[in-house]
Amino acid sequence: MTDPSPKIIDTTAAIGELVELLTDVPNNPPSIYIDLEGINLCRHGSISIMQIFVFPRNEVYLIDVHTLGQEAFAHPAASGATLKGILEDENIQKAFFDVRNDSDALYAHFGVHLAGIQDIQLLELATRRGSRRFIHGLARCIEHDAGLTGGEARVWKGIKDNGRQLFAPERGGSYEVFDSRPLSEAIILYCAQDVRILPTLWAVYNGKLEWRWKEKIEVATRDRINVCFQAGYTGVGRHMARPPSGWA
């Protein structure tokens, strides 16, 4: 597993350069893989960091949303393109793992309505052999399907555990660490490592995907994105582990 050093994007100049890069990447497979970290990540909380892995460049970019605020999404590149425009462009493919709370937070706080999204969690569910009564979380998918060697798995788990010690309340941590600046090395590594593995998971599941599932996935992904319009949506609870209607 390669380990490129993450690049912190915390100035408008850096945002402009990144946006310019993102406007000219291949679509198949997706080049852009995204994850978010924040405090109570949804409409009721806040976004601290957006992680973007650009697959063709093998680079992880950590966008400091806490510092940049609206400028992270609205500041134009030299071409006039913005990160908001890229996230809303259905012709630029972007992959998330469970887009629901990310979509809710992006729309509520920055008016970003995602499009052109592939949800890797749904790809796993569609290609799974056996029961589809419950969806699988990212950690389980990485452990079972990413093909990590024993050494890679130990490193991955160590980074995950070190990060959780800092932010997980049940371990004495606080989610406020995502808003502390400068970011600690442990948090930087935590933010960067999972998004790096998403292309591997996408390839594993997409390689097994049957055509009959494609339309179901498109509909379910659109429904997940549009939770941002549901007045009573809450991103915590047992309902989050249930599959889309008609999938079980």
TrEMBL record:
GO MF annotation list: 3'-5' exonuclease activity; nucleic acid binding
Stored InterPro entries: 3'-5'_exonuclease_dom (IPR002562), RNaseH-like_sf (IPR012337), RNaseH_sf (IPR036397)
GO biological process, one term: nucleobase-containing compound metabolic process
Pfam families in the record: DNA_pol_A_exo1 (PF01612)
Domain 3'-5' exonuclease: 6-210
Record's protein name: Ribonuclease H-like domain-containing protein
Organism of provenance: Aspergillus taichungensis
Lineage: Eukaryota, Fungi, Dikarya, Ascomycota, Pezizomycotina
